[in-house]
Design goal:
- By secondary structure, the chain is an alpha+beta fold.
- It folds into 2 domains: 8-114, PH-domain like; 128-249, Phosphorylase Kinase, domain 1.
- Helices cover 25% and strands 34% of the residues.
- It is built from 5 helices and 13 strands.
- The protein has a 7-stranded antiparallel sheet with strand order 4-3-2-1-7-6-5, covered by helices on one side.
- The longest helix has 20 residues, at 229-248.
- It is globular, with a radius of gyration of 21 Å.
- The termini are far apart.
């Protein structure tokens, strides 16, 4: 019987929690049609290779969504002859987490003999603007989306704000967006986001900015329930210093 060709079902960045030291490390994972689930420290330039950091098999695994200890996580439980081993992964968005879980379940069921159609890759896996590959959705705002990107030249991660030109024109926000771009590009401060590059196509404009992997303040407040006085003072001081810097440049921030 002819051997079936092994193909990549899904690939992308995941945070994996260590089994012994419980910290989270960003890895680039490939899920294959034969059940192999392989992680690399960074995305291999020439595709999957033998120099990997993690090698798992989802053939005899169960997977379920988790919201603890981190939001947008999933637990992969692998069954051995005498024991089960749990491994925890986290995504930046719920959409990406749900997609990974769906893919893993599809591969597991397919290998068990069930006729299951395997979903297609997300469109965000295929988008490229300039030297940046768009990976995952980080958030959405009034005028566009913010997407996690990676510079294909040096591997660094960036946050890319994507805005539709027609929407900007329809809402008379041209001056506002231009001002935002000039300010982000002109100033550098430890408590303010900086714009690294401005790109555009016929339909969209792109602000390429620093990627700060920490999440928004409300997420941490919801997670903690309340902040201690010491922690509150720290956050308040950072905001005040950022506003003080902007005021020294004759800029008023009107969306606090």
């Amino acid at each position: 019987m002819m051997q079936q060709k092994v193909s990549i079902i899904k690939e992308g960045h995941l945070f994996k929690r260590g089994e012994f030291i419980k910290n989270w490390r960003l890895r680039y994972f490939y899920l294959f049609s034969d059940g192999k689930f392989i992680g690399y420290k960074t995305k291999p330039e020439l595709g999957p290779c033998s120099d990997c950091y993690n090698m798992f098999d989802v053939t005899n695994c169960s997977v379920r969504k988790m919201e603890v200890p981190k939001h947008n996580s999933f637990l992969l439980r692998c069954f051995d002859y005498t024991q089960s081993i749990d491994r925890l992964f986290r995504c930046l968005t719920q959409e990406d987490r749900d997609h990974w879980v769906e893919m893993i379940k599809s591969v597991t069921q397919l290998l068990a003999g069930a006729e299951v159609p395997i979903p297609q890759l997300n469109q965000t896996d295929k988008l490229v603007i300039g030297p940046y590959k768009m990976l995952n959705l980080l958030g959405e705002g009034t005028f566009g989306k913010v997407i996690l990107g990676q510079n294909t030249n040096d591997g660094t991660f960036v946050a890319i704000k994507v805005m539709r030109k027609d929407f900007i024109y329809q809402n008379s926000e041209v001056d506002h967006i231009q001002s935002e771009g000039r300010i982000l590009k002109a100033f550098n401060h430890p408590f303010l986001i900086s714009m690294l590059e401005f790109l555009q196509t016929r339909e969209r404009i792109y602000f390429v900015m620093n990627f700060l992997n920490g999440g928004e303040l409300f997420y941490h407040l919801k997670l903690s329930g309340h902040f201690s006085e010491r922690r509150t003072k720290l956050y308040a001081a950072e905001v005040i210093l950022a506003l003080q810097f902007l005021h020294s440049k004759n800029i008023i921030y009107r969306d606090l």
